Amino acid sequence: MSHPPDSQPGTPARNPALFSSALPSYLKPDDLGPWGIYLQQVDRVTPYLGRLSRWVDTLKRPKRSLIVDVPIHLDDGSVAHFEGYRVQHNTSRGPGKGGVRFHQNVTLSEVMALAAWMSIKNAAVNVPYGGAKGGVRVDPRQLSLGELERVTRRYTSEIGILIGPNKDIPAPDVNTNEQVMAWMMDTYSMNEGTTTTGVVTGKPLDLGGSLGRREATGRGVFTLGLEAARLIGLDVASARVALQGFGNVGGVAAQLFAHAGAQVVAVQDHGGCIYRAGGLDVPALLAHVAHCGSVADFAAAEPLANDAFWDVPCDILIPAALEQQITAANAGRIQARLIIEGANGPTTPQADDILHERGVLVLPDVIANAGGVTVSYFEWVQDFSSFFWSEDEVNERLMKVMKGAFATIWQVAQQHRVSLRTATFIVACSRILHARDLRGLYP
Ligand code: GLU
Could you tell me the distance, in angstroms and rounded to a whole number, from the CA of residue 101 to the centre of ligand 1? Predict the structure, then answer.
C-alpha cells in the first residue's frame, strides 16, 4: 500500500511534540481512571503488533465522545439534570456496539474505557462491530419508575445523533435491563417515525429480543470457565466458587456452576457479603435477591466483612460487578487458581502482574464476558432478517463462537508466552488495525 511521502515541498517547520499522540486534553494526566488502565493494556500489546503498530494511536483516543445534558421532571414537579455520555471508540470493523449503564459514579473516562474494551471484545469474538458505550450519571435506585423512564427517553433522544441500527447499537449494562431497552427502542423509533427494533439489543422477546440473550453473559462466563479449568486441571464439579456481583452476570454464572456440581461459597454485592463453607443454596439466594435487592441478610449463610471477601478459600473467583476491584492491595490475598472476569475492567495492570507471578490464571473480561455481545449480535441479525431462532440454536452458536475465540487466544498466549489478556489484545488489536490499514485514511 502506498502512503503519502514523509515530507513535501513547502511543509513548514514543526514542533514534533504537537504531532505525537498526546492524551486528550479533556482528561487530567494524573487522574485517568479506567482509561489509564486501558492505555497501559494497549502499551503492553504494541510490541506484538508488527507493522500494524504504526496505527496504534488509533486505539488511544476514541473516535467520538458525546456529553449530553439529561433534564427531566421529577415526580414532585421540580427539574433535575443528569450528565449522559455516548462514546464510540472505534468503528473500523463495523458500527459501534456496547451497553448503557446507569450509575451515580459514571464518568467520561470510565465510558471511554468501557467503549474501548467493547472494541477489543467485539474483535476478539470476531463479531462485525466496532466498540461503543454509554452511561448516565444517576443512581436509578433513587428514581421512581416514571422518572427512570423519563431519564431513559431524554438520554436516548440526546444521543439520537449518534445511534442507529447501522451506526451504533446500545444494549443493557450495569443497572439497565429489557424495560430500559424497550423505552430506548420506542424513543428512537418515535423520533424516526418508524419502528426500528435493530437500534438496541437486549430487548424484551415481544419487541424483537432474542431467546438466550438475558443469560448469555453468564453462560459465556461458565462456558469459558469450564474450558480454562480443564486446561489447568481444575475439576469444576468439586470446585469452590466466590462471586462479586449477583446480578445478570454473577447470578446466572452461579446457577450454572452450581448445576455443574461446584459449591458457591461466597457472594459479595452492593449490599454486603455472605459466606457458607459448605456451599450456598443458589436458587434460594436468587429468590432472596429478587425479593430484597441484595445478598445481605440471607439467613442460610454467615455475614462477612466486605474486605474479607478477598481472603475466602476458593478455587474460582468471578468478579462480576464493577471496574478496579482486584488491585495491588488484594491481589496477593486471593486464594483462587482461576479468575473469570464477568465484569468489565475488574483487574488493574499491577494486580494482573501479581496474579501472573503467583500462577493464578486470569480469564480476561474482553473474552470471558463476550457472551452478552455475541448474543446481541445474534439478536441484531434476527431483527434484520425478521426470522427468529430457537434457544438451543442461540446457545449452540454462542458456544461455538466463544470456544473458537478462546482456542485462538489460548494458542496465541502459548506462542508468545503472554497472559491471556495480552493474547486477547494481540488478536483483537491486530484485527482492528488490519481493518484500519485496509480502509486507509479519509480524505
Ligand atoms: N454491556 C455488555 C458488555 O459489556 C453487552 C454489550 C452489548 O450487548 O452490546 O459486553
Answer: 10
